[in-house]
Write a structure and sequence with these properties.
With about 750 residues, the protein is mainly alpha-helical. The protein has 28 helices and two strands. The protein is elongated.
């Protein structure tokens, strides 16, 4: 409803001032204010025509002339008659009927009194009263106002919420909804204002140590139902406007010491009902956070309001954390709360299946790099690392091929995390078949990374690689690419590994089995026999040869069989070659010594510079360490001395124990050695007897062989054959002209 006043001037008349009240209203205004249906009469004359006057001001006790109404009635106004009632314009306007009235705190308080049915302070009468009577009435009127001021506000939030009269609030909300049925935003504001007025200011803006849904979990069922139903009746436009205006007004209200607990409760339940409403206001929230960065209470309150959406929707919580909380993680005042939210999100996102449209691959790997490079504070690094780990599987499900390529490019640069990344790459291949296509496109430019990944697959996921048709088709494509490289040119890094691993994983005939340590158990038996033979020679030389191999039985047998003579002959033949090899070795040694001396002389200045540089570096490190951390080297020296002393004590104790165990071991060894000597004496004697028999038997066979050969050579047929062969040999030499006689 709109009201205004206009004074019309009539130049042709006697310059009387007529006040006209123009009212523009609709049918709803008439129903709300019945007095508008009545006829409004004005009967006043003004001394100063042509000037604006306040409508509803004091009337003159002695009117000068008659008004148009009096003339129509045919009678004038008597001096003793009471003037007709004047209706003020303010009485026709409710405090909240204009869009500017919401900014006036006095009008808002008056509207709240009207909604709650609280009577206004009675106005004093216009007629003068005796002084005594006025004083008495004033005294009487001041009593109820004192009682209102003495109303106590509960100290704690749970106590205040218990004392809220839900019936009174419901009645007030019913009145507001009836008067302003089309203004849903006003419903939410009135609800938050009522709760703010009946709650106290909280010391902890984030309710540390409380459950995630605090303080809405301590509301009574009636109060919670009332707030939730009001939110549900509001449309998205009203909810968005209320959220935005609450973010704007909350800092100023907190700076003035006004309680915002009621606003927080309404915003929390709103976030539970519509978690996505916060996404449209992240830019505004960042502006408010930047403006109040030094105000810890305000910033934490804003962060708390933004974080409530993660209780019902983890995807929204991830977006809120990445855009508004992560930039504040390096600040000491907010690091703990940001880490707390990261830990909560890690516990919720681990069970999620996908993060589509919530987090991009680029933002995810930026977060990974911050954790790996140590830019995240130490106090929050564990929580953020857990969040990164929990987000990996949902990100793979949403962006399989993109995640695969990012991991493939990082395999070479991060050897420590190669196993974990290779495992995630296999998950990408299983989750998204487009990962194979991306791998084929980038294979030429990532040969070394592909080799590392194929090596890990060979060691850990052979079954998957051999059974997957897509994997086998990809390996076949890689072999085609490998064949395009020229064998004469220098191979690219990782190419040979890719060729071998592709052939192995595809089951090539050349590599059917994975290479293992070659060898047979027979070679160990050969080693045992060689050691036994060496021990037999040593025993024979010591016992039967008095330390001389020539005098031993084996030496004598070798001499009888001609082995010794052949060995001496070979030694004489090889003697010149051995002497020449020795001369070459002496020359080589001299050359090596000379070259090493030259290299040492050339490198000596550089070594001296390196030594000086190390000394300077040591001095700089010592000085900088002392500047940054005074007393660090003294503390380090004390720790070092304590460590040395502890090491000496432990070493002495270990040495004593080692000596003790050594003595026990020697005693046990001596005991068992005596037993072994007694046990082996019999076997040594038997072995000697058997060896003697073998030697005698071998000698008998040798004599028999010699006798048989001699008898064979003495036969007449053999002699004739030899003579014939000799004659034919000389004839052949004579025929070719080589005979000397």
């Amino acid at each position: 409803m709109r009201l205004w006043s206009k004074k019309a001037l009539n130049a042709s008349s006697s310059q009387n001032c007529i006040v006209e009240v123009i009212r523009v209203f609709n049918s709803d205004d008439r129903e709300t204010f019945p007095i508008l249906n009545q006829e409004i009469m004005y009967d006043d004359e003004y001394k100063n025509p042509g000037q604006w006057e306040v409508v509803g001001g004091k009337t003159s006790s002695k009117p000068k002339g008659k008004t148009a109404t009096n003339k129509m009635n045919g009678a004038g106004t008597k001096s003793g008659a009471a003037p007709k009632p004047i209706i003020k314009v303010d009485e026709l306007v409710t405090p909240l009927d204009t869009k500017y009235a919401l900014l006036d705190p006095q009008l808002r308080a008056k509207a709240k009194q009207d909604a709650l049915g609280v009577p206004d302070k009675p106005a004093s009468k216009s007629k003068p009263k005796p002084a005594s009577t006025t004083v008495n009435k004033d005294v009487v009127k001041k009593k109820p106002s004192k009682e209102v001021v003495k109303e106590k506000v509960p100290k704690s939030l749970p106590e205040a919420l218990k004392q809220i009269n839900t019936a009174e609030l419901s009645s007030a909300m019913t009145t507001v909804k009836a008067r302003f049925s089309s203004s849903r935003l006003l419903w939410l504001k009135e609800l938050a204002s009522y709760l703010n007025n009946h709650t106290s200011t909280e010391i902890d803006p984030v309710f540390s140590g409380k459950s995630r849904d605090y303080p809405s979990n301590i509301l009574s069922s009636e109060l919670k139902t009332l707030i939730t139903s009001t939110i549900q009746f509001c449309d998205d436009e009203a909810l968005s406007a209320f959220f935005d205006q609450s973010l704007i007004t909350m800092p100023s209200e907190m700076n003035r010491g006004v309680s915002v607990s009621g606003t927080k409760i309404v915003l929390q339940l709103l976030s539970f009902h519509r978690p996505t409403v916060v996404l449209a206001h992240l830019a505004r929230a960042n502006e408010i956070l930047a403006a109040n960065e030094s105000n810890k209470a305000v910033t934490l309150s804003i962060l708390w309001v933004l974080s409530q959406s993660s209780f019902k929707d983890s995807r929204v919580g991830i977006q809120v954390w990445m855009e508004t909380m992560l930039p504040l993680i390096s600040m000491k005042n907010y690091c703990a709360y940001v880490a707390q939210n990261a830990e909560y999100l890690a516990s919720k996102t681990s069970s999620m299946k996908s993060l589509a449209n919530s987090l991009t691959v680029a933002d995810y790997f930026k977060l990974v790099e911050q954790v790996q490079q140590g830019t995240v504070p130490t106090t929050a690094r564990k929580e953020v690392a857990n969040l990164v780990q929990s987000l990996s599987q949902p990100m793979i499900s949403a962006h399989g091929s993109k995640m695969f390529m990012q991991y493939l490019r990082k395999l070479v640069s991060d050897p420590s995390g190669r196993a974990d990344m290779s495992k995630k790459m296999v998950s990408c291949l299983r989750a998204d078949a487009h990962s194979y296509e991306s791998w084929r496109k980038e294979y030429r430019s990532n040969l070394l990374s592909s080799s590392c990944f194929l090596q890990w697959v060979t060691d850990n996921e052979q079954t998957f690689a051999r059974e997957s048709q897509d994997f086998q088709a990809t390996l076949c494509h890689f072999q085609t690419i490998n064949s395009t490289y020229s064998p004469t040119s220098k191979p690219q890094q990782g190419l040979n590994g890719c060729i071998q691993l592709c052939e192995y994983l595809m089951g090539s005939k050349k590599n059917k089995k994975k290479p293992t340590r070659s060898g047979s158990k027979l070679k160990y038996l050969n080693y045992v026999m060689l050691i036994a033979l060496a021990y037999l020679v040593y025993y024979d030389t010591r016992v039967y040869g008095d330390g001389q191999f020539v005098n031993s039985r084996l030496g004598k047998a070798a001499e009888r069989s001609g082995i010794t003579a052949k060995a001496l002959e070979l030694h004489q033949i090889a003697q010149p070659y051995l002497a020449e090899a020795e001369d070459h070795f002496v020359l080589l040694r001299e050359v090596v010594y000379r070259k090493a001396g030259e290299i040492h002389q050339r490198a000596e200045p550089y070594l001296a510079q390196v030594g000086d540089g190390m000394v300077q570096l040591k001095n700089v490190v010592y000085r900088k360490g002392e500047e940054l951390y005074p007393g660090i080297w003294d503390a380090a020296d004390e720790k070092y001395q304590a460590l040395v002393l502890l090491t000496k004590e432990k070493a002495a104790l270990g040495y004593a124990m080692a000596v003790e165990y050594t003595e026990l071991g020697m005693e046990a060894g001596a005991k068992y050695w005596e037993k072994f000597q007694d046990w082996s004496a019999v076997y040594r004697q038997q072995l000697a007897e058997q060896t003697e028999k073998v030697i005698e038997l071998t000698g008998g066979y040798v004599q028999c062989a010699r006798k048989t050969i001699a008898e064979f050579m003495e036969k007449e047929q053999v002699q004739h054959a030899l003579k014939y062969s000799y004659d034919m040999y000389h004839k052949a030499l004579h025929a070719v002209g080589l005979c000397s006689h």
